[in-house]
Amino acid sequence: MWLTTITVGLVTLILIKWLNDYVKRWRMPPGPFFWPIIGNLSLFSGRMYLTFIDLAKTYGDVFSLKLGMTDVVVLNSLDAVKEAFMKKGADFAGRPKMLSMDISSEGGKDIVFTDYNPTWKLHRKLFHGAIRGYASGQNLQSKVHESLKDTIAEFTKMEGQGVNLDDYLYQLVYNVICSAAFGVRYNMDEENFKTLMKVSKDAAERFGQGFLADVYPLLRFLPSPTVTACRKMMDQILGIMQCHLEQHKETFDPSNLRDITDHMIKAQKDAEEEGIQDINSLTDTHLRQTISDIFFGGTFSSIFSLRWALLYLAVHPEIQEKVAAELDSVVGRDRLPELSDREATPYMEATMHEVMRMASMDPLSLPHATTVDTTLRGYQIPKGTMVMPNLWALHHDPDTWGDPDVFRPERFLDENGKPVKPAALMPFSAGRRACPGETLGKANNFLLLGGLVQNFRFSISKGEGPPDLTPDEKGGGASCIPSPYKVVMTCRK
Ligand code: HEM
């Protein structure tokens, strides 16, 4: 009897909540029918950015979905993203609360996954200072050149063979970012390098798929092998960051700051000495989290950009030869490309824009959340609604680009060959949460890709058949990473 009463009570509560959600939906952007409890869960799987483009044809460029019981608003056009993230920046600058984000940020103590609050502001400011000091201009250039020289020597030994360059690109990029972050460079066979690369790859894959407990928070209290595995991976990675932090503290000299880790320690010590409130936002956990954001943000983005760029250039040899010819005429063969060459190499710049557009590595950016009850296009969006900008849709809109599925760098050049950048190209997102690593990311990609193409011709292995340009399933819907491929390198010198 009591079992029946409980069941009837529960079903009634679920139905009331469902009806209530439907009433609320009348004032929100339109969207498809959703079920009690599961909502539109099936729409959030696979390449969901493509599903969202289809849904926009029926419901318009701003529509609502239910991720389980959470309201989600999808922004499917440039106008919608501009209105939300630029005109109403602060209203849309939050982050949703999810178990996966909580685990990787140790409870929101980083920049990426923390909500829009003073701690986030402080760490973004520190981030910019750290990048300016240790990973920009001449400083960045010399780190890239040093790493490139080793990689060029390695690649030369493999001339003519079909090689998957993945691990070599990891080493190349790690040596730039890790030397800026904590003054470390790695050899391919070093244990620390292998561990960091393996755990980072596994973590990106596992976290990219998301957890069921992200959708149903109560499940976080039940045991889950995926969650346990992810916690273990994060412990390993953060353990490495903490180790660097402690070693730096032992040898810290305020008159000789060596890298980003020293920069962060200095901020902590200044706050301690001046007794300012920031001290609670500058614990060792916050410090290792910001260092870890720089490590992950700086490495994955560059590795995946390079992998996409080399793939597109191998598939389009005529474009690769144009890039190489431009580098030849501006840089020559006696030195590596420098940041001062960027202005004189518009075709290279246009090619990098086209890679970013075609690949759309973060097709749905990162999820935002509304910080207050707000409105968009006259619809009401309650506080705490998850907001997903569909950057893939912006980058592949036929009305904007004409032939979005064609790899054509010329679309980023005007009739005089000068660079143009349409507003709809937004790989770094926009507004208050826009990627703070944009300047570093672009400079790094220019120097790395420029150095590689200046020295080698990359072609598809003869026996391999046409390479797969669709993103690897492992990225889930959250990131577009290239499927594994092999290239043959031929020295240009
Ligand atoms: C090709 C290069 C890169 C691309 C395409 C890229 C893309 C993005 C995107 C789409 C976001 C989400 C923005 C949003 O929430 O709307 C983001 C955030 C972020 N990126 Fe990047 N990124 C790149 C390079 C970098 C680099 C080099 C770093 C650091 C060294 C970095 C650090 C971050 C951080 C810390 C955030 C979080 C910002 C916040 O939540 O306030 N990124 N990035």
TrEMBL record:
Mind listing the GO biological process terms from this record?
A: organic acid metabolic process; steroid metabolic process; xenobiotic metabolic process
Record keywords, A-Z: Heme, Iron, Metal-binding, Monooxygenase, Oxidoreductase
State where heme binds.
435
Tell me the PROSITE patterns matching this sequence.
CYTOCHROME_P450
Tell me one Pfam family matched here: p450
Instruction: State the compartments where it is located.
Output: Endomembrane system
Which CDD domains does the record match to this protein? CYP17A1-like (cd11027)
Q: Origin, by domain of life?
A: Eukaryota
Q: What cofactor does its activity depend on? A: heme
Bilayer-spanning residue ranges: none
One annotated GO molecular function: heme binding
Main localization is membrane
The family assignment reads:
Belongs to the cytochrome P450 family.
Q: What is this protein called?
A: Steroid 17-alpha-hydroxylase/17,20 lyase-like
